[in-house]
Prior knowledge:
Blueprint: E1 2-6, H1 14-22, E2 29-34, E3 41-48, H2 52-62, E4 66-67, E5 70-71, E6 73-76
Antiparallel strand pairs: 1-3, 1-6, 2-3, 4-5
Amino acid sequence: MKLLVRNLSRSTTEQDLRTLFSAHGKVITCNLVLDKDTGQSKGFAFIEMPNEIESRGAIKALNQLNVDKSKIRVKYADV
């Protein structure tokens, strides 16, 4: 299941996200979207988790959680 994580702090890293989501299940990919010109985070990322039950649990646990002083939003990505 592909998840969209929005409203990320510019200081949040892919490793931070992988650690956060791995606590709720297996993470296949973690892609923090970066600006091509500056290399800075654009404030959102995609996480792929193979298990639907684990991905639902991650959404429930992490949506609206404060991470690096930003309240993140987590939902299924529209693919």
